From TrEMBL:
Keyword Cytoplasm: yes
PH domain segment(s): 125-226, 248-352
Compartment(s) of residence: Cytoplasm
Record key words, sorted: Cytoplasm, GTPase activation, Metal-binding, Repeat, Zinc, Zinc-finger
Gene name, Swiss-Prot/TrEMBL: ADAP1
UniProt cross-references to InterPro entries, sorted A to Z: Arf-GAP_dual-PH_domain, ARFGAP/RecO, ArfGAP_dom, ArfGAP_dom_sf, PH-like_dom_sf, PH1_ADAP, PH2_ADAP, PH_domain
Protein's name according to its UniProt entry: ArfGAP with dual PH domains 1
Length: 370
């Protein structure tokens, strides 16, 4: 009584056998021969010249279309359209921003970038230059700036004046990270780039109106990082290097904090947990952190406790967290119990992870900070 023809029965069987997407699919592209989740079906509708999306249950299916689906499917499409995906190229997950997911679909089916290697040149050549809108530090407006990424120079540079000879900033590839942050930046193509300057984290926020341009920049940064790490760790497997190319933050959000004496009033700050660095900012789009806390492992006397010491005063939010380091205690408060639980879990995850040899050097640097 669903109003669909008997031809759909083999399609449903085929769906259960062939499906490799993220969620149980209700949709299919009858021109590409792939099953789609709701989220991907919306993107496929935007490339209607290549992909014709139909409901598996509710749309009429001809015998020819069903045959086509049965003889193709997601594994066949993967073999056809993903023949030459570079190891460094970012493959989005269902939780990634729309831009990454859309450009991945367009790169595969519309531009056929992973069939024709020469179409990968914009992010594979080791050099890329162009203009991006960069958020100014003072008034916060976005200004057009020239960027150059050069693997030979080992750096990403940007220039304030179009004819400037010296870059305004030189970001070494070995400390570079890039993360799409559309909500925080207020731009659907917004990218946060971080690098270390004198071992402190520096943020810049950029975007480009063209989605492909922005994702090409992102993958060019990943390619440069990949090639740097291949040289730095000869003999390492690609699978070990790829997770190190770019990283999303473990958690971000507002908490209140107090100073080292625990006598000052608590102030609301934006916190970013990036690997073992907990940074806090007055504003989420600040260029520099007001401070950074290193979070080591439990073997090295780092612990995370719910609540604050009973004598603590001057806080507004009720849900406390104490981070104990070998040197001192850091006190934070969260607005809700849920936020407290999420931050506790994030901190606990870091503390439970044994420290790597190179992380001891980072910890030592934090100990010597004034």
């Amino acid at each position: 009584g669903h109003g669909f023809s008997s031809t759909t029965a083999p399609l449903l069987k085929c769906k259960s056998q062939l499906f490799v997407c993220f969620a149980d699919p209700d949709w299919a592209s009858c021109t590409l021969g792939v099953f789609l989740c709701q989220s991907c079906s919306d993107i496929h509708r935007n490339i209607s010249q290549i992909s014709k999306v139909k409901s598996i249950l509710l749309a009429p299916w001809s015998d020819v279309e069903v045959e086509f689906m049965l003889s193709n499917g997601n594994d066949a499409a993967k073999a056809k359209y993903e023949q030459k995906v570079p190891a460094f190229y970012y493959r989005p997950t269902p939780t990634d921003c729309l831009l990454l997911r859309e450009q991945w679909i367009r790169a595969r089916y519309e531009r056929k970038e992973f069939v024709c290697v020469e179409r990968q040149e914009p992010y594979s050549s080791g050099y890329r230059e162009g203009f991006l809108w960069k958020r100014g530090r003072d008034k916060g407006q976005f200004l057009s700036r020239k960027f150059i990424l050069s693997e030979r120079d080992g750096a990403l540079k940007y220039f304030n004046k179009h004819d400037a000879r010296e870059p305004k900033a030189l970001m070494k590839i070995h400390t570079l990270n890039a993360s799409f942050q559309p909500e925080k930046i207020g731009q659907p193509h917004g990218l946060q780039i971080t690098y270390l300057k004198n071992n402190s984290t520096r943020n810049i926020f950029v975007y480009h109106e063209d989605g492909k341009e922005m994702v090409d920049w992102f993958n060019a940064i990943r390619a440069a990082r990949f090639h740097y790490l291949q040289v730095a760790f000869p003999g390492a497997y690609d699978t070990d290097l790829v997770p190190k190319l770019t990283r999303n933050y473990i958690k971000e959000g507002y908490m209140e904090k107090t100073g080292p004496k625990h006598t000052e009033g608590f102030k609301r700050r934006w916190f970013t947990l990036d690997d073992r660095r907990l940074m806090y900012f007055k504003d989420p789009l600040d260029a520099y952190a007001r401070g950074e806390v290193f979070i080591g492992s439990k073997e090295n006397s780092y612990t995370v406790l719910p609540g604050l010491t009973p004598s603590t005063q001057g806080y507004h939010w009720q849900y406390g967290i104490t981070i104990v380091t070998p040197d001192r205690k850091f006190l934070f408060t969260c607005e809700t119990e849920e936020e407290q639980r999420d931050w506790m879990a994030a901190f606990q995850g870091v503390v439970n992870r044994p420290m790597l040899p190179q992380e001891y050097a980072v910890e030592a640097h934090f100990k010597h900070k004034p």
